[in-house]
Amino acid sequence: MKLTLNRINDKFHFRAKSESGKEIDLDASEKIGGENAGMRPMELVATSLAGCSSIDLLNILYKQRQKIDNYRVEIDATRHEELPSTFEHIHLKFILKGEIDIKKVESGIQKTFDKYCSVYKILEPTCKITHEVEIES
Question: Is 19 exposed, middle or buried (0-12, 13-18, 19+ CB in 10 A)?
Fold first, then answer.
């Protein structure tokens, strides 16, 4: 994997580019001189946890022939006060709509966390990660 991070302005606005040409903007908070021109790095980490676990979970559910009409994850993350302010707790709320067996979702999430999600495995030793599932009608 090769990525490039380029500075966009004379503050803290950066643009990351992947080998495949995809780009994402990063910035710092206004509190330290950022301009809110992109996501903050720790927001990207929490989002990466949701994204990684979602790819794995949806792959499992598709193989189990679950019909998913809508899917989203709400992320609630708290960080330690002291520096470096790593994550203390991340809570993921998986919200699905369709013809879905909640037991298969719960089992899929457990498999995802135990076996497949690389981001989860990186964060697990230093952060409490919890989840819940909601099936919308």
Answer: exposed
